[in-house]
Design brief:
The protein is of the alpha/beta class and 190 residues long. The chain contains eight helices and seven strands; from the N terminus they run E-H-E-H-E-H-E-H-E-H-E-H-H-E-H. It has a seven-stranded parallel beta sheet with strand order 4-3-2-1-5-6-7, with helices on both faces. Helix 1 packs parallel to helix 2 (45-56). The two termini are 23 Å apart.
């Protein structure tokens, strides 16, 4: 059972109103299911939207942000808990430790980098937590095609490709994340 979920997403709202609405829906869904939101601690874009929606619906939100980003005045000051780290590496490590699973909403290269790091860790057996993407309006279709291309070219095993859960609706994604059974439990890294 998921008690906390790390959500990676854009610090902008993107080009479509559906991205913002999806972020709000995720926040409301987490609150409704008593799942703590763990996220990058920002107050802007989809990050701010998912946090605000979770809080508004009575949920619990934990942010993790670097000193540098706080100095840029993008930190959310109304969270249940805000951790401030010195480096991005510390930030990502703490977010991973605090979460029982990971989801990427639409976002940019930072979102992709964070997703692929924890997805790689799952493949290597560093953790046994579910990883998913919310494919709002087909945002991640090019990525899913690329993942299949990696399989076709023998750079990714199909079993590993299947462990990245993709759904277009928040409720369906949460249901699959909660039902996730780890495929790889051998610890390669401590």
């Amino acid at each position: 059972m998921l008690k906390s979920l790390c959500v990676y997403c854009g610090s902008s709202s993107g080009s479509r109103s559906e991205y913002l609405e999806a972020a709000k829906s995720v926040g409301e869904l987490l609150a409704k299911n008593s799942i703590t939101l763990v996220y990058g601690g920002g107050s802007v874009g989809l990050m701010g939207a998912v946090a605000d929606a979770t809080l508004k619906a009575g949920g619990h939100v934990v942010g993790v942000i670097t000193e540098h980003l706080m100095e840029m005045e993008v930190g959310h000051l109304h969270l249940n808990k805000l951790h401030i780290t010195k480096t991005m590496h510390e930030r990502k490590t703490l977010m991973a430790e605090l979460a029982d699973g990971f989801v990427a909403l639409p976002g940019g290269i930072g979102t992709l980098e964070e997703l692929f790091e924890v997805y790689t860790w799952a493949q290597l057996g560093v953790h046994a937590k579910p990883c998913g993407i919310l494919n709002t309006c087909g945002f991640y279709e090019p990525l899913l095609s690329m993942m299949q291309h990696l399989v076709d070219q023998h750079f990714l095993k199909e079993v590993h490709n299947r462990t990245l859960i993709a759904e277009s609706e928040p409720e369906a994604l949460l249901e699959k994340l909660q039902a996730y059974q780890p495929q790889f439990t051998k610890k390669w890294v401590n």
